[in-house]
Amino acid sequence: MRVLFVCRANAGRSQIAEAYYNALTGTKDAASAGLDLGNSVMGEDPTVPEMVVTVMKEEGLDVSHNRRDALTEAMVAAVDRVIVITDYPLPEYLASSPKLEIWEGIPDAVRTPIEFHRQVRDMVKRKVEDMVAAGR
C-alpha cells in the first residue's frame, strides 16, 4: 500500500512516520509532505531539522538525506492512503478525499527540547506500528 504522511512543514512528524513505515514494511511505499513549508520555522530550507535527524538516529533510522516537500494534488492521487498528522487547514482536494485519515493528538515538536522530540517520535512510532500490524 502506498501511503503519504502529511504534517504542516514536513519537518518532523511526517518524516518520522515515513521512515518508520518504510522500515517496518521493508518497502519504500511511504512518502511525506507538508502543507505549508514557506511559513514554517524552517522556511524554504529543504533539509530535515537536526533534532529530528538525531532522535531518528537513536532508533537506527537515518533521515539526514531526506528533503522536505510541499504537498501537491498529484501526490495525493499517486497513493492509496493519506495520513494527516496536524490540525493545520487542509486544501479542499485533500479534505474531501476518501483516502484521508487524520491522526489527532500528536503535537508539533518545533522549538521544543530533545526530550519532547523523543516523546513525539514515540507517539508516531506507536501509530505506525499499529497501522502496519493491522495491515492497513
Molecular structure report:
This protein has 136 residues and is of the alpha/beta class. It has one domain (3-133): Rossmann fold, CATH 3.40.50. It is 37% helix and 12% strand. A four-stranded parallel β-sheet has the order 2-1-3-4, covered by helices on one side. Helix 2 (50-57) packs across helix 5. The protein is globular and about 35 Å long.
- Overall 3D geometry? globular
Radius of gyration, taken over Cα atoms and rounded to an integer in Å: 14 Å
Q: Helix and strand string, N-terminal first? A: EHEHHEHEH
Total number of beta strands: 4
- What is the CATH top level name? Alpha Beta
Would you tell me the overall average pLDDT?
Answer: 94
Short précis:
With 136 residues, the chain is of the alpha/beta class.
Secondary structure topology:
Blueprint: E1 3-7, H1 13-25, E2 30-34, H2 50-57, H3 73-77, E3 81-84, H4 92-95, E4 100-102, H5 114-133
Parallel strand pairs: 1-2, 1-3, 3-4
For the structure shown, list the relevant keywords.
single chain, 136 residues, alpha/beta, Rossmann fold, 5 helices, 4 strands, 12% strand, globular
